[in-house]
Specification:
Number of helices: 3
CATH class: Alpha Beta
Largest sheet: 7 strands, mixed
Helix content: 10-25%
Radius of gyration: 15 Å
Number of domains: 1
Strand content: 25-35%
Number of strands: 7
Length: 173
Amino acid sequence: MKEGHLDINQFLFPREKAFTDLHLLFCERNLRTILDVGGPSRAFNIFNIQNWIYRYSNITGSQKSHFIQDDICNSKIESDSFDLVCSNDMFEHILEPWLAAEHCVRICKSGGLLFHITLFYWDLHNSPIDCYRYSHIGLTHLFERTGKVKTINCGYYQHKKSKQRVIYFGEKI
């Protein structure tokens, strides 16, 4: 490896371990409310349990009872209202991700969890727009810059034989 280049293998965070760690911490802390920003996402099916309250938000979507119409960059969702604020493949589609991160942290209850999966390397895909790719450093910074989050872990996982996604796992302090 060339001098100055970062070996991302040292930051591997297997998806299964990430979700297991999240699920265990969620249960240990007796957390109950989940907001899936940009959802619904099949990635968070592990939380589809009867006594947990799952909601998803998006700019547009269905009018189902668990749907909240909201723009995460200008969110009107009440502060400190969810135990877990999560997203899957959403942050690459946001023009101002620092605003989205600030609102995710604001919406999360103190002692609650933040869990976000986004792209490190992937083809361009407009849905409706495609803006960013993230390293573990950049994604961590988006949340830690609020001064209200402690990072539990952040790293990459393999998808389709290449290291393409990055997971951020943090706690609101």
